What we know:
The structure is a single chain. By secondary structure, the protein is α/β, with parallel strands linked by helices. Helices cover 31% and strands 24% of the residues. The chain has eight helices and nine strands. It has a five-stranded parallel beta sheet with strand order 6-7-8-3-9, with helices on both faces. The chain has a four-stranded antiparallel beta sheet with strand order 2-1-4-5. Residues 1-10 have low confidence and may be disordered.
Amino acid sequence: MMAASDGPAPDQERAKPRLTGHGLSCRRGDAALFSQVDFELHAGEMLFVRGRNGCGKTTLLRAICGLTEPAQGQLCWDGRNIRELEEEYRAHLLFLGHRDGVKEELTPMENLEVQDGLRGEGGGEEARLDALERMGLAGREDIPVRHLSQGQRRRVALARLLLSPAELWVLDEPLTALDVRAVEMLLGLFRKHLDAGGLVVATSHQPLDGMRDARTLALD
């Protein structure tokens, strides 16, 4: 007699896509941005979304985060529509837009503390200090963000990647305003996240050198 199964084998689980898009179409007013877009992303994979300005890259990223409703199609996480999952899905993702999303009147430490509180992650002061140091912001932890350069502000926002347990990183132009050293550090962070089974969806006007295995989704 065949024994009852305890569920899919580990290899079968890994073969299933974590994030999928089926027949996605988005509009801005009466204009179609893109239509019938399909993709799937497995654990340990990166999706590089590219295309000319105005083609809908940011709109697609916002749809993936559940912030924009597609005109058609659906997005699924582990086979379930993200609209059904709501907060359960959002707990798995971290979204960083092309704007820094930091409060200028707060210090880098205070900004990270606010974000930790909003997401209920509670990384702690030591973890926040370590994240800012790794982002090259040692000595600037208690300076109001308004006094920092554009690149330093970007690093404050990206420090959240070092603190969040989110599996899915959705990043709009993450390399903006970063110098060569910071770009290489960030790409190394991507590789480490992917090696651990995480997922990355990103747009960038710059080539993602060192991420040659990334899937590419062209919206042109």
